[in-house]
Amino acid sequence: MKSAWLTCWLAWPRPPLAAAPREPVVAKAATQRISFSGPQARALWQPRLERLGEAALAIELEMVRRKHIAATVLWTGYDGIEALTERVRAIGLEARPIKASLGYAADWSQDASIDEPKRLLDYAFLIGAAPLDAAMADPAAEDMAETAIRFGYPACCAESWANHLRRGGSDPLARVLAREDKTAVPAHTALAVLGLGPVRHAPCSTDCSATRDRSRPFLDLGRELGFVEEMSWLEEIAGWTVGASLVNGVAEITTAAFRCTWLSDEGPSQPRLAAPARRPEKRKAAAIELVDSAHVLAELGTGFESAGFASPFAMRSRFSAVVWEQTAALRRATTAVHIGCGDGLLLELIAQTKPKLRLYGTEEDTAAAEAARQRLGASFPVLGGTSTDVFAVLSRLAPEGIDLAFVDPEQLGDRDALAAISAIARSIIVIGTDRSLRRFRDIDNLAATMGLALLPGRAARVSATLSPAMDRLH
Amino acid sequence: MTVEVRPLGDKCNIKCRYCYQEGIRTAGNVPTRYDLDAIIATLDRLGEPFSLFGGEIMMTRRSDLERLMQLGFDRHGGVGMQTNGTLIEERDIELFRKYRVRIGISIDGSGPLNDARWAGSLAATRRATARIEAAIETLCREGMPPNVIVTLNRMNAAPGRLDVLCDWIGFLGSLGVRKLRLHLLEQDETEGGEGLALTAQENLVALRRLRRLEQELPSVEFDIFTEMAAMLGGDDARTSCVFHACDPYATRAVVGVESDGRLGNCGRTNKDGVTHLRASREAFERQLSLYRTPQADGGCQGCRFFLACKGNCPGTAIGGDWRMRSIDCPVWFGLFEDIETELLASGEIAISRSELRPDLEAKMIAAWSIGDNPTLHSLLQPADST
Ligand code: SF4
Ligand code: SF4
Ligand SMILES: [Zn+2]
């Protein structure tokens, strides 16, 4: 952002100035800390804010020239001093340095160094008709209200600002923002720190009518100087609803177009000003019911040792990987069986992936078969008994045959069983368990050792389809 | 600085009950289109390594995703990717290998332990969890173990379930997972999330248990403990954003590259559904205020761990107001205390107990006041070497 606004900016508020060195950090930082609510808001308002800043500066100088106010204070960096003095001189006014303050590290040019500290400072200039008394911006305590009036404060605001300064305050908006009652802060007041114009003094309250009355002449003068569009934007802004708060000495103003923030010097030494902004109480969701860890373990999967796994986690993870690898095959299938289904975990995972699949399980161990029935519910038959009986029942239940049969060949033991399965299943999927993969390193090796041929795939896969060329099993 | 590329913004295929982005999605602020050229132009300008991020990054069209991966690989030798893992498919594995994608997967536990990452129904949730577990195991078997991000919540880390969580982490270690990142659940984020958060005390108990676990499992490392120890040692060059005086107006530690290529902030401080653009200047009002605000008022005044912790992530601030310290303060404080004790016992320095602390704090405050944010490491160097 390059503009006159940023090489030279209005002090906020007008003098008398606070004793604390809050300027120029606050006005400059607040300006540079504008955070727009979106790209459209930025496209529209960033250039407008810059032009409003320039208009405010021109109007302020004109007010001094016309002697509406005694003087004003402008800030600039070291490199802006010359331009500022020239600009002021051109309209017959004088500029006098009254204060300097360490600027922002990010603004320091590459070549500026601590050997040349003057280039690291920002400078405040009093601007007025000659001869200028530099002390007028920082008057003695007894003159403060009077000085404020000469700088354009309404009497009510002059009095309250003087009192605030005497008590050691420094932020003109601290009291306004920290109010407990949430009457909306007028937008021009809340945004005054950005140097947009109409409110240039510290207002005594959010509803000070004298402060409101001061905007009219400002807008009129602006239009007279040719800032017609700018003044209409200001009128638009006046209608904005703003959120304004001060929490632990950090102020934040939020509008629909942007938000900005600044560190108020009014921090811990002050009495606690505001309760932190809390979000509205939400309806509490029903408390989560938690079963104990024994139930969790059961739900994770039981019988992992006999199924050939090192832990319930390993079994669940592996079966999940099998389902994941067989996504395409499962998508095409309408029926599937898990031979030796244990507690039914693989079938459950398959059902979660493809609920319409007709699923069967077989399990010789009666306790495990019972666990499987528990897990799967009544809609999936889990067949007990020895393998030969089971296959007979299975072919009766699914006379049209079964699309996919998942098997752990190691557990199946002999090739006769495999042949029996291939008689009823169109496709056999071999699963690697911890036990078998530890023994045979990978699934291809496992199959080769058992004299089985697999369809090709990733070497690291944990399941594979038996080659249909295994007709010789019959 | 971490650069997070977010072509689809906060768009996600599952809706974790506690996700910090839920508010944004509820507000309807999710981009429907993205401009890949603009994104790439921004990445070129930044010239920094980046991570693919979301929402859920894997919802991006594969060919576009591949272009981004390739860009990361060509420029920086690889690219990070944070995903919920549910959309990874077998064909993606070669993509990950080819472009050296460093994958981070979020999951809170096996099967039912991950139920807080809700996907609409119980069956859909369990299906999503199974896909995540499959992706982790597969990536490990393929020699590309992912980092795993675990959010502690009532489902996986309630007192009665901690042992199960630890056993599961042991299992991940046996698969080959080396790094885990632990997140604390934001305590009052989404409506559904409210029953899920652990109390500060429970969080502390869980984290202490996990720290012991880390010592029992030499192959597994939890970033958070390592980083906290590094911070206390004044070695903050590589620790994560939460320890680096994050400014919610311009989250320097995390920069988002959004769907139209513009720069965004880290979304964790976004509480009202408005994704504000970055301010042109980073500043440290929050830390300056916390340093001088009494703890009773939501500040950190007098805390000996302030240099290391700095009030922590503003996205976790008390009451959702970024100006307050982290609601997880008791957890941070307790862990810092543990780690401090151990550092001192082994004869190492802890800046919290160092006589240099007042001086370091003064230097840090002075630097923040003028908008500067030096590392502790640089402040600890002897003056003549800088
Ligand atoms: S808001 Fe929190 S998570 Fe985001 S960058 Fe800041 S510290 Fe990191
Ligand atoms: S431990 Fe708590 S008090 Fe201390 S710095 Fe962190 S948040 Fe602040
Ligand atoms: Zn008044």
TrEMBL record, chain A:
Name of the protein described by the UniProt record: Uncharacterized protein
Source taxonomy: Bacteria, Pseudomonadati, Pseudomonadota, Alphaproteobacteria, Hyphomicrobiales
Automatic annotation (TrEMBL), chain B:
One matching Pfam family: Radical_SAM
Record InterPro entries: Aldolase_TIM, rSAM, rSAM_sf, Sulphatase_maturase_rSAM
Highest taxon above the source species: Bacteria
Cofactor: [4Fe-4S] cluster
SUPFAM superfamilies to which the protein is assigned, alphabetical: Radical SAM enzymes
Keywords: Iron, Iron-sulfur, Metal-binding, S-adenosyl-L-methionine
Any one GO molecular function term: iron-sulfur cluster binding
Protein name (record): Radical SAM protein
Origin species: Bradyrhizobium betae
